[in-house]
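Dear Dr. H.,

I hope your travels went smoothly. While you were away I took the liberty of generating a structure for the chain from your last submission, since the lab meeting agenda had it listed for discussion. I wanted you to have the full record in hand beforehand rather than looking at slides cold. The sequence, exactly as received, is reproduced here:
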Amino acid sequence: MGKCGLFILVLILQTGLTAQDPEAEMARKAMAERNAHQRLVLLHEWIKAYPQSSRRRERNSLLLRTQKELGRTGEMLPTVRQMAQEDPGGSGGVLLCVYTVNSRINTPAVLDEAERSAKAIEGQGKPGNMDVRNQEIAHRTLGWIALMRSDYDGAEREFTSALRQNSKDGEVSYWLGSSYLAQNQKDKALFHLMRASQMNGPDAVPSSVKRNLRPFLDKLYREVHGNAAGLETLRRTSQNKVFP
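The corresponding predicted structure, in token form, is as follows:
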């Protein structure tokens, strides 16, 4: 068979496969589309036609990427929840944990689902760099959930575990300090909040929070100790230590 005949045979086979599997054609079009707006339209058509597709995992990943490209992060939650239900201890669960904390979600139903995922991730702990990161995410999420439920003992325990795995997380220091403050453990609260107020990097608290923290901490320190004599020492200590 010549090259031309072979090409025609391949074309006939491809056409036949597409006709037998129309979903494959929908998937191909969505995955090949470079325009994010048009890709989103194609994805929704695919979802409507095949809600229980065996290609859900790939479709959901593409849907999340497209929503992120378009800045529609608020629309990502239903997709992330579905992914977590199907894979609570894997990538779907990790995504739900990260989304829940980063979006500051406090809806009871979502917190329950994120808790299931975080515990599933925690239960799969094994040596390895990726697992260390996932374990940190699990503890961070469980701490956030406990904080939202006003379970300050639980929040303290989980945030402490998260900080042991990533000492550069200023947000966790801030939340841990808030947990201590809610329990009236003011010296521990002072240390962790002071630490959070001085940390920089991708996991630091926002600059606006830092600006508000500084006068608050000055006032709280004087309230606890009667004067500001040891305030600068606390600033220096909290810069160099993870725990008091």
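Two observations you may find useful: Residues 129-148 form the longest helix (20 residues). Residues 132 and 165 are 7 Å apart (CA to CA).

With kind regards,
E. W.
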